[in-house]
Design goal:
The chain is of the alpha/beta class. The chain has a single domain, classed as Ribokinase (UDP-N-acetylmuramoyl-L-alanine:D-glutamate ligase), CATH 3.40.1190. Helix content is about 30%, strand content about 25%. The chain contains 10 helices and 14 strands. A 10-stranded mixed β-sheet has the order 5-4-1-8-9-10-11-12-13-14, with helices on both faces. It has a 4-stranded mixed β-sheet with strand order 3-2-6-7. Strand 11 and strand 12 form a beta hairpin. The chain is globular, with a radius of gyration of 18 Å. Pathway: Carbohydrate metabolism; D-ribose degradation; D-ribose 5-phosphate from beta-D-ribopyranose: step 2/2. InterPro entries: PfkB_dom, Ribo/fructo_kinase, Ribokinase, Ribokinase-like. It is found in: Cytoplasm.
């Protein structure tokens, strides 16, 4: 991807207050698990990605979000501003601020239930002026009609549109046609492509110009303009994987907005995501630009190599 005309990133999407409890394991259906400590963290995929983008450095970051007129909104707005995000807030008086209930197991896996609240009040017309914006980063925790309207308006304005298609759901072609780069995990890729177990085939049938699939401990795979890329993961001792995918998305878009090559942006995003797994919380775990720089400088050279190979028939 060539550099955009502006390095400013606008994130439009969800913001929640996360109620996080640690337990020995994530409960199965019908099971009650006795947890341990409870902690509150600002979260929501949109807000997490905005914080990650701002902390990545070099890309001024704005965010469109909706909050209720309640106490839960306060730490969310504070976290965004402290990270350097300029918020554009739609205040919803008759709905509570979004919340998420997260169970984190001792092996760092998680299960999340979200009550959208004010997030569901966002509409297509809420998107702020796009002057100076080079990239628009979206997710699917906002109403789908609003997401599509934002993408189409940005595409018409010459803004690069990046969609993290999470939570997974089938998407209309009218939305996919407005996307420059799609970011998904393996499950989300299977839902969109209808192909499970064959990454090459699944990547090939996604109609967007570029697509990235995150693979957890195996790093990520990507397709851009007919070429496939593979970035191996960085080895860490995981504490909490909550927010790792959002860290990847925000860091990747910030790197692209700064003009880094696609391969270099993937490497930086994988490093930031790995570091995020070593800390608790979503936004609280997002590393700074300097932390990622030190990590990349100290990491073994093998995991940093991006290999490319032709698209298989």
């Amino acid at each position: 991807m060539s550099p955009a005309s502006s390095c400013c990133v606008l994130v439009a999407g969800s913001a929640n207050l996360d109620f996080v409890v640690r337990a020995s394991h994530v409960p199965a259906p019908g099971e009650t698990v006795l947890g341990r400590e409870l902690a509150l963290f600002p979260g929501g995929k949109g807000a997490n990605q905005a914080v990650a983008c701002a902390r990545a450095g070099g890309a001024p970051t704005r965010m469109l979000l909706a909050l209720g007129d309640d106490a839960h909104a306060v730490p969310i707005e504070r976290s965004l501003r402290e990270a350097g995000v300029e918020p554009h807030i739609v205040r919803v008086a008759d709905r509570a601020t979004g919340t998420a209930f997260v169970c984190v197991s001792d092996d760092a896996e998680n299960a999340i239930t979200v009550a959208p609240g004010a997030n569901d009040a966002l509409r297509g017309e809420d998107l702020p002026d796009l002057s100076g914006v080079g990239h628009l980063l979206l997710q699917l925790e906002s109403p789908l009609a609003a997401v599509e309207a934002w993408a189409q308006r940005a595409r018409a304005a010459g803004v690069r549109v990046v969609l993290n298609a999470a939570p997974a759901r089938p998407l209309p072609s009218s939305l996919l046609d407005a996307i420059d780069l799609l970011i998904v995990n393996e499950g989300e890729l299977a839902v969109l492509s209808g192909i499970d177990g064959d990454l090459d085939a699944a990547l090939a049938c996604i109609p967007t110009r570029g697509v990235v699939v995150t693979l957890g401990a195996h790093g990520c795979r990507a397709r851009l303009d007919g070429e496939h890329l593979h970035q191996p993961a960085f080895a860490v001792s995981a504490v909490d994987t909550t927010g790792a995918g959002d860290t990847f998305c925000g860091t990747l878009v910030a790197a692209l907005a700064r003009g880094l090559s696609f391969a270099a942006a993937l490497r930086r995003a994988c490093a930031a995501s790995a570091l995020a797994c070593t800390r608790a919380g979503a936004q609280a775990s997002v590393p700074s630009h300097d932390e990622v720089e030190r990590w990349l400088g100290e990491a073994a050279p093998a995991p940093a190599a991006v290999t490319s190979f032709p698209l298989q028939a």
